[in-house]
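Dear colleagues,

As part of the handover before I leave the project, I'm documenting each prediction I ran so the next person doesn't have to rerun anything. This entry is a single chain, and its sequence is reproduced below.
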Amino acid sequence: MKKLAVYGKGGIGKSTVSCNISAALAAKGLRVMQIGCDPKADSTALLHGGTRIPTVLDAERQKGMNVTLDDIVHVGDFGVLCVEAGGPLPGVGCAGRGIINALETLKRLGAYEKYQPDLVIYDVLGDVVCGGFSMPMRGGYADRVFVVTSGEKMAKYAAGNICMAVENFRGRGYASLGGIILNRRGTEGEDAAVQMLADDFHTTVIGALDRSADIAEAEKQDCAVRCLKPDSLAAKQLDAIAQAMLEACGGVS
């Protein structure tokens, strides 16, 4: 089982990338589990026709310790196993703590042993890398961290913070940096700026995704790009990114 975490500034497109990567890898015949670690709980929506699945925290509020894997793991398009950590009630509690709780619950219930996924993808909000939001990159959860960014100033700033957090964990047996994914927004000198960011952290830009009307249309129809336009440039770019991520993790035997 390979485990990777996708981080990025809020609104940078990491959930869109994550869903499409999950779909691309599942289409190759891999058993994929995607775990949404964003309190908005919409990470896997494109794999469920836009509907939101019950979250781990919601299920635990209703059932307490009687919660089961059937309550929190839901099968989406292409057979992707979908989980949403969820978050606290608005204005109450810590979203980061919700992530910690969800990951601990999955582990306690034996999710990885039961479903035996080839690949686990954690989709994580990365505006701030606090203890909860950094959980997937430490504690043995993820093997590699991939950062989605554009050439925009705040996106690069958030990406730099995430890369720095990974660097700070070096030598502790935690996840290592797998690379940067460029989600182009058309800013001047964008490719060069993101390449410079990658160079600063001794990593690579493993792939780039152009702004695309096909991606926008797929999102409007609440599905992955390969469902709507499997032969589009966007689908091919996403397939290439998925393959590069898989290779950065050492592949799946």
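The domain at 2-247 is CATH 3.40.50.300 (Rossmann fold). The chain has a mean pLDDT of 91.

All the best with the project,
I.
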